[in-house]
Amino acid sequence: LCCLFRKAVCVSDVKSKDKFATCSAIISHNALLFLAYVYAFLNVVLNSTSLFWNLKLYRTKTTNNFLLLLSSFNFADGALAIYMFIVIVTHHVYEGRIHYVALQWKASALCRVIGIVFMASISVSNVTAMLVSVDRFLCFVYRKFQSHGLTKTQYIVALIVNWCFGLLLPLMSIFTSQSN
User: Can you give the pTM of this predicted structure?
Assistant: First the structure.
């Protein structure tokens, strides 16, 4: 996308250095567009199924607070599908003329929102994966932890802190870029 955000007008027959995007399309190859559709669809279906299954199990088994971590993980990964769908729709809306509206798109509220969704989803997903790893490590190494592990309140506090920092990072980058 390097040629899209230059101040000079992009000529459509000039080759972009980016192999995945051109001056006329966000996703230049049909195979990549197809994979984006497949990824977004599978992401929504699989993470939604897993999220509902985890919440169903959580309601039946009050002792397994670990399912809260998995549900947060599913929700964060599912947010990535929202990002993918918006990129795909934007590709179709601006196909063939992205070089004319690239600067307006970059400054638009929707572009900023999907940036927040993308960055928050990635950071929350990574930290949640780390929390899952630490929790499982403690359960396997210290058998007493398995029966007396973290309480529901401790899991909820960890998830709230995780989501707050996950949203704070992209919001800070947006507000600092507006002040420059």
Answer: 0.70
What does the chain come to in residues? 180
Contact 95, 25 (CB under 8 A): yes
pLDDT digits (tens, 9 = 90+) for 137-173: 877 787 766 656 677 888 889 899 999 988 888 888 7
Tokens at 42, concatenated? 């599978």
CA atoms of 59 and 68, how far apart (whole Å): 11
- How far apart CA 86 and CA 68 sit, in angstroms, is 28
Contacts of 79 (CB under 8 A, 6+ apart): 117, 120, 121
Q: How far apart are CA 93 and CA 24, in angstroms?
A: 12
CA 10 to chain centre: 30
**Which residue in 110, 47, 37 sits closest to 76, CA to CA?**
47
The token pair that represents 137 in the structure block = 């490590």
